Amino acid sequence: MKKKIFMLVFMSVMLVCSCAYGFSDVNKNDWFYENVKDMTDKGYLSGYEDGSFRPSGIITKAELVSVVCRINSLAEKSSQISHWASSMLLSALDEGYYDWDEIPPSGETYDEPITRQLAVKIIMKAFLPDEKGDYNYAADNIKDFSQVDGRYYDSVIAAYSNGIVFGDDNGNLNPKAHMTRAEACAVIMRAANRKGNLKPYETPEATEAPKPVTVRKGGVSENGKLRVEGTQLVNENGERVVLHGMSSHGLQWFPAFASESAVKVTADYGANLFRCAMYTGEGGYISNPSVKGTLINAVDSAIRQDMYVIIDWHILSDGNPLMYADEAAEFFAEMSEKYADNPAVIYEICNEPNGNVSWAEDVKPYAEKIIPVIRHNSDGIILVGSPTWSQDLHEAAKNPLEAENVMYTCHFYAGTHTDWLRQRIIDCGLPVFVSEWGTSAADGNGGVYLDEAKKWIDFMNERGISWANWSLCDKNESSAALVSGADINDGISEGELTESGKFVFENF
Ligand code: IDC
Which of 391, 443, 473 has most ligand 1 atoms within 8 Å of its beta carbon, as the pocket-test mutant? Predict the structure, then answer.
């Protein structure tokens, strides 16, 4: 008995010793050892937290495609859905590695196992698209060749003829069976190494660390009172002005990031605008009027920093602005009286109408109620939203407001809103102000989608469109500019900006 136990212990020590550098279930004499090592050393695929690699576990469509994309350094495309690999899958689809019906971009099959024939096609298209093969050779050597679907013939034949894929011990390909992780490593690494020039994969660094500006530019002392000319915002001398800055998050939740020192940090990095998002619902002004104090403090801070500042009546869950129109009228009467002669202040009267609201029946009548209230005291810039979370510029364009110094807001989130919304801005012919945008998807999370965000920045720069980015806070969501727990009372250190924050601060 004792002897037996000793043998068992001895054998398990032996087992541990023969493992490959870390993975408990990959051994030096496994047929896939070199491929798994190559794949994981280069960072294309990793093992599990428990130290295993699970070589005989199946690989999903999303996993296989993302590995292929990493090896080929494909740029990630922005995607409407929030799956971790969706942006890589869209890039691969775009490159023609697979067809729409094989892995629909709606994502419902992303996490399903991939069939061997589809995997072979993707791998061949990605790495050896020009290789051909010999039909007779493949037909002779693959016992179950008749099981292969016609659309995969070419790839399977090329893969066999080039030694990228071998059959199982019985000479079968099993084209419709699932591929294991070990098999995927082997087939992918054979094909990728054949193509050559493999660079290790590193998680892409967003941008370089932004730096504070040495001289502040574009502030109120330089531009004075703003007005709208045609579609453009202009300064006191009629010259084009573009405002860039951060939006606060909900002031009822994150007052610390709307303090004077927080606002100042953004100005130090080049912002000439700050937006104070005062939610009406969700524990905001309607149920908690004291949040107005936080708002006034933020507005005054921005003014002292020589910045333009937006007072945002942040409707959101209360999608119809008419719901609290009386409260809005009272609030804007007070604010416009308080800041009557101050050229810094901009009034945003309804953040994002949404739900069952129309421009003609709800938003326009609301604006026609509030604008005269503000005009009683001030001829400052007024920003007006539109239905569908301030995207229905085309509706407003059919039936615009008859008022001076009014701009229409367009809100976008790079992971959700793309070309079509830019086209809408071009087509509407209205003066547009992007008073809120994010690098994330529309829920404030996911991504970040910096390639699409860059397209938006370029577009806005070309057209001289002003913007405020959502949001200056440390909430654990990807649109937030600051990492959780960041303290910006003493300035910002590099580590305190998120990927989104770095990108946005660079673009002030
Ligand atoms: C989001 C916040 C999130 C909060 C949610 C509901 O990022 O933390 O839980 O509101 O209050 C908007 C809105 C803006 C949203 C943002 C992201 O104006 O309030 O903030 N968004 O979803 N419109 C489109 C996106």
Answer: 443
